[in-house]
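Dear colleague,

Thank you for sharing your sequence with our group. We've completed the structure prediction you requested, and as agreed, I am returning the results in plain text so they can be pasted directly into your records. Please verify that the sequence below matches your submission; if there's any discrepancy, let me know and we will rerun it promptly.
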Amino acid sequence: MNSRRRRGPKPNSRRALELLAGSPDGMTEAILLAHGFTVDMLADLIHAGLATAKIERMVAGDWPMEVTRVRITDAGRRSLAERAK
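Please find the predicted structure tokens below.
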């Protein structure tokens, strides 16, 4: 057995990745924050290469705004799959 087995993401990070995996278009940072995730935890996922963040422009009513959309990466999907084994 491999004693240097890679460990998957922490439970809260795993929950965030599971939410992102279930959202083909990703989720906005605001929605993830509403789910109780912190900006620091999301930044950790992005820095680890498990998720990406992209600023998008949108209009709500007559108000233009920018939102940050977070998506899971292939590495994030692999991390979830490895942990499920």
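Summary note from our side: The first strand starts at residue 27 and ends at 28.

Kind regards,
the structure core
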